[in-house]
Amino acid sequence: MPRSKPPDGRPSSPRRVARAVKPDRDPSTRAVLKAFEALELVRCAENWLTLQEIADAVGLVKSSTYRLLRSLESTGLVESSGGAYRLTGHVGPLLPISSLKTLVGAAKEPMRDLSMSYRECVSLAYLFENHMEVVAMMDSPETVSVGNVVGRILPPNASSLGKSIMAFQTVEKREQLLRCYGLHRFTQHTIVDPLALSAELAVTAKRGYATDAEENAIGGCCFGVPLRQPNGLAFGAISVSFLKPRVPEGQGLEQFIAKLRGAAAAVEERMFPALNKK
Prior knowledge:
five-stranded antiparallel sheet, disordered N terminus
């Protein structure tokens, strides 16, 4: 279906929306916040916005803004026509910028503690309307390690973050996330059978954490714990990624899982008031 041309009218002052939150000094956090500034900007605009208008409002050069918008467009959140942008009609309510900043801020100290304790990559994910996404991460200081990328859309079947969130959703929400992403194979260990994935999620829900045993990349192993509301549903997850030879074993693994759960609990305690959870 061809896209209609954007109308000539433009909102009088898009800057008023975008200046609600100042960028965080951490580069990865700043990138996520800039993306949500742009999303909030186009959500509140009455008409299409040009690339230049968005760049001016969020405080980025046009080339950086273009890359940001291309990423948002590829995930189906934003659409473009004739060099102008708007929110797609099927997008549900967005997470307010202030809540996103609160989430990243609430997780920073627990993530830093995990990073210092295990010297591995630590990641934070959030459940959006139709996908799960990495919203913050801390790299491993080791020369060789498993990494992650802020803004990465998570596979529901091949990541500990994705499976942690999936395991604590309604059946309807699980089906929606699977429809949006699909069941893709990344390695010979990836779970691509729906029944096998359901069994894996049942195990995850019972023990309270998820694993990625070389399911996303050979040599990479990851453990994730959900971030849950009081009603039991997950709104995000936190994980630590190891190279296979460095995965803790025996009592060391038990201690690690307990520490990972403690980190998730610390994030939850700070987030519930900010997200108005009851």
